[in-house]
Amino acid sequence: MLLGRPLRVGRHELRNRVVSPPMERNYGTTDGRVTDRYVAYLRARAAGGAALVFTEATYVRADGRGRVRQLGAHGDHVIAGLRVLAGAVHAEGALLGVELNHAGRVGDPAVCGFQPVAPSAVPFRGRPPRELETTEVGDLVDAFAAAARRCADAGVDVLEIHAAHGYLIHQFLSPRTNRRTDRYGDPALFLTEILQSVRRSAPHTTVFLRLSAFEGVPDGLDADATLAVTERLPLNLVDALDISAGCYEAGEWMVQPGEIQRGVLAPYAARFRRFGKPVGVAGRIVTGESAETILQSGAADLVAVGRAQHADPQWVATTLAGEHPRPCIGCNQGCIDSLHTQQPIWCVVNPRTGREHLAPAPPVPSRRVLVIGAGVAGLEAARSAALAGHVVSLWEAEPVIGGAFRLAAALAGKPEFGRLLDWYAAELVRLSVELRLSTRADATTVTRLAPDIVVPAVGGTGVRPPIPGIDHPRVHDLDDWLRHPRTSDRVTVWGADRVGLALADAAATAGCRTTLISAGSELAPEAGPREKGLTVRRLAGSPGVEIRLETTLEAIEEHHLLLGHAGRRQWTRIAGPVVVSQGVTPRHLDIGTGPWQVVPAGEWPQVTR
């Protein structure tokens, strides 16, 4: 496999072609220092086989910070921590990279304490930045140089200049955000000066340049324009080009959801081969097959595998061994949308991610463990119990594993979800977990097994608010509808949480005229913009979809619904079924009492492989 072959880039040889790319993590301190959590996270990806492990976008000046606990290279106080980080990564045989960045106009004054600065006063989310004076631009060049020196002093191997994703350097490159009339109106000048200053400050480091192949908005840089401005850069100062895409106004191109095809940016990266530099590419590279295909095609020399290594730090070693790592499902919940609320990142499919610094549960004598319910929570509990050396039985009332997660996996907008269930199925076999399907747990059956520990993981059932007509035959619970979909040319979905939204999207995609009713003012408020962005856009732009926000459903009749809006109630005619998505209430599990200990699935110790 090309994936496992070394590659010389600049002054360093990478042991394989897989990079753990810059990902914002929010694991640092509020003044930008490295923490034990940060070290443990990067060490785990280095130990898992990545050739080059990057920090997140690391701010070079205090007014360029975008997250509360973002890593910084803005002062000498960060050097000691970076040195520890470099030592930890080097001890696992990998190289450490730091991505140097300034947020520019996308910075938040509530986070950094400064008014954002930018090449021009183009507002972002209603906040106008301050346009930089000409002399101030030179000060920022110096800030990049000083940050590069600090990183070099700390033993960092690779510096990446972040000129993508709509941050400050990208703002200078784009005519959408650079309207200057002084010499920095030249889109290439600011980046040129940064490359020159970084090379002078850190002459012995390898330099990567990260670019968005296109911005993804109508008035931004397209692929041709990006290539044209790249041609004007002093690429003799660059050792490798790292190709991504998008900007904050087109976030789906920065971190693509699971419904986007794998390796989507490879054709764009291939166009940068003309510059004669090693090329890396990101963008939905989640399997060894997709990574190898990109390399074999010649589109790139390196693959940036971010979210997949976030889900499984052993992704590289497992893939190179010809096995299947724990899969990333492209949900974008914990790894990116958590940042929008300034939370540290986590992972939906791996409870250990972000907790690598915590000691695993101490070993205990082997016990007989019964896990009841083979949804994702039960599957993870059974796996971790088996890894800890327990004798494990997993009972599931349905004839298949997966629970409600399997229902979600059947939706067109969740094409990667099924891979997680396939992986768990293989893990149960590998770890000799006894799986009993179509088996209901009650006091008699549990007593017969005589477990030492019972882990209930039975999920919940849909809520049906007590309104007139709620028991009409045309009304269906969401789970029931997904298990037994009906043929209909029209459907009303009552409830616009993330699952109601996904169901409405699936119905509309199938050509069904869809009405979505929500008492709230926002679709799926519990879901972040990267998780729901494409879905909301599709629904809002579909002529076959009617969205009624701030609207209550108060009664159901044979052909009419009583809706409330703005203090008024009105009957409206409907055709087709009504599917209810109004939350979940926990199921009650009656297994009686016995000598066994009951441990909820959420409290079961999570054990690393």
TrEMBL record:
<keyword id="KW-0285">Flavoprotein</keyword>
<dbReference type="GO" id="GO:0016491">
    <property type="term" value="F:oxidoreductase activity"/>
</dbReference>
<feature type="domain" description="NADH:flavin oxidoreductase/NADH oxidase N-terminal">
    <location>
        <begin position="5"/>
        <end position="318"/>
    </location>
</feature>
<dbReference type="GO" id="GO:0051536">
    <property type="term" value="F:iron-sulfur cluster binding"/>
</dbReference>
<dbReference type="InterPro" id="IPR051793">
    <property type="entry name" value="NADH:flavin_oxidoreductase"/>
</dbReference>
<keyword id="KW-0479">Metal-binding</keyword>
<dbReference type="InterPro" id="IPR001155">
    <property type="entry name" value="OxRdtase_FMN_N"/>
</dbReference>
<dbReference type="InterPro" id="IPR023753">
    <property type="entry name" value="FAD/NAD-binding_dom"/>
</dbReference>
<dbReference type="GO" id="GO:0010181">
    <property type="term" value="F:FMN binding"/>
</dbReference>
<keyword id="KW-0411">Iron-sulfur</keyword>
<keyword id="KW-0408">Iron</keyword>
<keyword id="KW-0560">Oxidoreductase</keyword>
<dbReference type="InterPro" id="IPR036188">
    <property type="entry name" value="FAD/NAD-bd_sf"/>
</dbReference>
<keyword id="KW-0288">FMN</keyword>
<dbReference type="Pfam" id="PF07992">
    <property type="entry name" value="Pyr_redox_2"/>
</dbReference>
<protein>
    <submittedName>
        <fullName>NADH oxidase</fullName>
    </submittedName>
</protein>
<dbReference type="InterPro" id="IPR013785">
    <property type="entry name" value="Aldolase_TIM"/>
</dbReference>
<dbReference type="Pfam" id="PF00724">
    <property type="entry name" value="Oxidored_FMN"/>
</dbReference>
<feature type="domain" description="FAD/NAD(P)-binding">
    <location>
        <begin position="368"/>
        <end position="588"/>
    </location>
</feature>
<dbReference type="GO" id="GO:0046872">
    <property type="term" value="F:metal ion binding"/>
</dbReference>
<comment type="similarity">
    <text>In the N-terminal section; belongs to the NADH:flavin oxidoreductase/NADH oxidase family.</text>
</comment>
